[in-house]
Design a protein that fits this description.
Oligomer: single chain
CATH class of one domain: Mainly Beta
Largest sheet: 3 strands, antiparallel
Radius of gyration: 59 Å
Amino acid sequence: MTSKEKSPPEENPEVLEPEILEPEVLEPEEDAPAEEEKDPIEALQEQLKKKDEELAKQKNDFLREKADLENFRKRLIKDKADAVQFANERLLKDLVQIDDNLERALNAPNASLQTLKEGVEMIQKQFISFLKSQKVEPIEAMGKPFDPSLHEVMTQMESEEHDENTVMQEYSKGYTLNGRILRSAKVVTAKKPAKETPTPIEEENVEGKEK
């Protein structure tokens, strides 16, 4: 070829036309059912009804608790009355047993004075044991110096054998309960003998002798 031959034009590739998408039409959603607006008066009435129910419940609870408290108070009063009425029940049972033994001793057939005395002594020992079990102790008084916190003076007697204000006799025993005075001992205390004063006649006789 002498002249440049033009190459045949390349065939244009197939041009694709753009696909046109139709817009999707969204169907409108169904509207949710709108809440019905309540009447303000009805809403207020419902609230009042709830409050009334709560108040009624609280009132019932209060009345129930009040009744329980009243029953508890009555039970306490009864228990206190029973405690006062039967406080010495165990004590009296022991005393009844001592009385039983005393009655047996008195009703013993053909009892001599000696056997009766022995029976009473046994009962006395039982009674002393009973007092100790109740924390009751006798107060020692005989031969002891007078103590106003333990002794009660009934009278005084002159004595050369005892120091002044020494307990000579004991009318009745004293006792302590748990270290506290239950009953003071009633005692007789000693005092110094009074000096004898000469009578007028004795004085004249003394003067006559001196002359």
